[in-house]
Specification:
Elements (H helix, E strand, L loop, with lengths): L1 E4 L2 E4 L5 E5 L8 H13 L4 E6 L2 H4 L20 H8 L6 H11 L2 E6 L2 H10 L4 E3 L7 H8 L5 E4 L5 H12 L6 E6 L14 H9 L3 E5 L5 H8 L4 E5 L17 H18 L19 E4 L14 E4 L10 H4 L30
Helix pairs in contact: 1-4, 6-7, 9-10
């Protein structure tokens, strides 16, 4: 279950691919947008993501009840004016792409209609992101997929049937380069509503890489998701939440993002692989396991009894599983108290030997 993004494997067996979502955190400043790209690279992100739309490609300039937001993070806003504030001007995007290449970070964008896809094709983008709210826009999905580039598709609010339809829309074009993102389309998302177990269910259903588009506060959700098998992590990223814009309240500052990346990488180390037995780090402590020892002096020919042999630490004698097998057998030689019991010290012993 892997896809390739700019030559890098993304999926099971590869490190989590970490995306810093700029969104509207530039707050209308080209210079701040460039600063965000550099800060994301320094904070350990693999990719910087922007969004490609205009207010007119997203919605209507209309102020009736349908277009005014009544609750949530953007309560009181009008959709058209909100998107005017949050959009990333298209005339910036070539420079942002070039800056990402200069600092060595992947450049990704979310298109919201066919014209933005065409624009991004002109920029030469190598892969696409699809937002949760567009999961049901099958014609748009088919158009993006027709470009035969990898797609990272968020599934917030999607039913299994809707997600299946979107996946099939991608596959119908012959494009199989797809990853899904578990997402809660709330800003910020509450931990108790994240339902991260869905990550493994999406993997089971679709057998493709699955990640987390994380709108919760802090890094706990991201780290936990990676422990549960997430292959991609996406987090909104800003220079400072003091720079107010539509995305600032639920975005991570650089130090927070850096700590999240470090946490994710530590989780990956800790997850490791399925392994049993003594690890290299444990080798020096293996001697502290238990084994059979002589605990009272024993004369040659004397019987081994619970009074003169015991299972104790350290592990230089026979394995404790042989305790009952050696009871009643005779000592093959004189044995001093504190001697680890070895096979050759027991008359007629048969077994596979020592603990250590």
């Amino acid at each position: 279950m892997q896809i390739s993004i700019n030559g890098r494997p993304v999926g099971d067996g590869a490190p989590a691919y970490i995306i810093a979502e700029m969104s509207g955190n530039h707050a209308g400043s080209r210079e701040r947008a460039l600063e965000i790209i550099n800060a994301a690279k320094e904070a350990g992100a693999d990719c910087i993501k922007i969004q490609t739309y205009t207010a007119d490609t997203m919605t209507l300039d209309c102020h009736n009840e349908y277009f005014n937001i009544g609750r949530g993070t953007w309560e009181g806003e009008n959709l058209y004016s909100l998107y005017q504030k949050a959009h990333t001007p298209w005339e910036w995007q070539e420079e942002l792409r070039d800056e990402a290449a200069r600092v060595g970070i992947d450049f990704l964008s979310t298109p919201f209609d066919n014209t933005s896809v065409d624009f991004l094709e002109g920029l030469g983008v190598s892969f696409y992101k699809l937002a949760s709210f567009e999961l049901v826009d099958i014609p748009l999905i088919e158009y993006i997929a027709s470009k035969q580039k990898p797609i990272i598709m968020s599934t917030g609010m999607g039913t299994p049937e809707e997600i299946g339809e979107a996946v099939n829309a991608v596959y119908s074009t012959g494009n199989r380069r797809l990853a899904l993102m578990k997402c809660v389309s709330a800003y910020p998302a509450k931990s108790e509503e994240m339902n991260l177990r869905t990550i493994s269910d999406l993997k089971r259903r679709f057998d493709i890489p699955v990640g987390l588009s994380d709108h919760s506060m802090g890094s706990f959700g991201a780290s936990t998701a990676v422990a549960m098998g997430a292959n991609i992590i996406e987090k909104h990223f800003c220079i400072s939440r003091a720079v107010k814009n539509p995305d600032s309240t639920f975005s991570m500052e650089p130090d927070e993002f850096r700590k999240m990346v470090e946490s994710v990488r530590e989780v990956e180390k800790a997850m490791g692989s399925v392994t049993y037995g003594v690890s290299p780090q444990e080798e020096s402590n293996a001697c502290f396991r238990r084994s059979l020892f002589v605990v009272e002096d024993i004369r040659e020919g004397e019987a081994l009894t619970p009074e003169n042999i015991r299972s104790i630490r350290p592990a230089y004698g026979l394995k404790p599983k042989y305790y009952k097998a050696v009871l009643g057998k005779r000592a093959a030689c004189d044995l001093k108290r504190g001697t680890p019991l070895a096979p050759e010290y027991v008359e007629g012993f048969e077994g596979d030997g020592l603990s250590f």
